[in-house]
Amino acid sequence: AGKYSAPDYERLLTEGCGLALESTMIYHTPAVREQLTRLGIPVLVERSSYEDNPLGRMEWVRLYGYLTGKEAEAERIVSESVAALQPILREKNTERSVAFFYVSANGSVNVRRPGDYMAELIELSGGRYIFRDRKFQKSGNSGISMQMEDFYAGAKDADILIYSGTIGGELESIRELIEKNSLFQDFKAVKEGAVWCSGKNLFQHSVGVAEIIAELNQLIRDPERDPEQELCYFRRLN
Q1: CB-facing half-sphere around the CA of 186: CA atoms within 13 A
Q2: What is the crossing angle of helices 117-124 and 209-221, to 10°?
Q3: The dihedral formed by the CA atoms of 26, 29, 33 and 39, expressed in degrees to the nearest 10
Q4: pLDDT tens across 194-211, in order?
Q5: 40 dihedral zone (left: phi>0; alpha: psi -120 to 50; beta)
Q6: Cβ(19)–Cβ(13) below 8 Å
Q7: How far is CA 114 from the centre of its chain?
Q8: Considering only CA atoms, which of 159, 125, 2, 113 is closest in space to residue 54?
Q9: Percent of the chain with pLDDT over 70
Q10: CA distance 98 to 112
Q11: For residue 156, what is the DSSP state?
Q12: How far is it, in rounded angstroms, from Cα 215 to Cα 78?
């Protein structure tokens, strides 16, 4: 039905749309939200990405259960997911340091802010986010851009590197990472082969939080695991 910034209003009306579920991008086009409301189509803005705690993001499944008349099924999904995570959450942290990042087109490196959703996922999964104690300038963004030299100083000794395929694009090999900047060949994780790439749709799977934590837990506890043993959300780079 068009784009968030240019909906196909005629189609929405013809097909009797009863709800417009929008991402926070709709805030950039307030006129669209106003027009939808004017046409009698209520607008719900999906704000699960604002949740600091990954388990809080999973709670949004309950909202969708309520909206679709499947509250019991939604409750079952959330309860089973939380129960499945308990053994992992009770484990002692490995203290292995993890960097989650991607390289921008201009050569700078984008990392996650401490306390961000991805940083919390790493902590819940048994790792330590490499920049957890770093003080960054306050901003409303979850990502922080830094020069490669600064990233090198902070993350070259990280036990595990995870390249974000969501924004940076998925990588197929460690060589591709080194081609982005030759300094990567001096990183501990690169030398030890503990380099991973996340799938491009990682952040869209709110209902998959439990599975994401389970996979992160596996790669953190066994960062050099056999690449043939495929995971769903992460892939080890050769």
Answers
A1: 11
A2: 60
A3: -130
A4: 999 988 777 666 667 888
A5: left
A6: no
A7: 14
A8: 125
A9: 92
A10: 11
A11: T
A12: 18
Pairing type for strands 234-236 and 195-198 reads: antiparallel
Give the C-alpha separation, 200 to 187, whole Å: 24
Quick check: 177 and 212 in contact, CB under 8 A? no
* Type and span of the H or E element at 37: helix 30-38
pTM tops 0.85, yes or no: no
Contacts of 145 (CB under 8 A, 6+ apart): 104, 108, 109, 110
For the beta carbon of residue 153, count every other beta carbon within 10 angstroms: 11
User: What would the two tokens of residue 188 be?
Assistant: 């501990």
- In 3D space, the residue among 186, 179, 176 whose CA is nearest the CA of residue 237 turns out to be 176
Beta bridge pairs of residue 160: 98
Average pLDDT over residues 82-103: 93
Quick one: how far is CA 33 from the chain centroid? 26
> pLDDT category, 122, cuts 50, 70, 90?
very high
Other beta carbons within 10 Å of 238? 10
Instruction: Kindly state the tokens that stand for 204.
Output: 């869209």
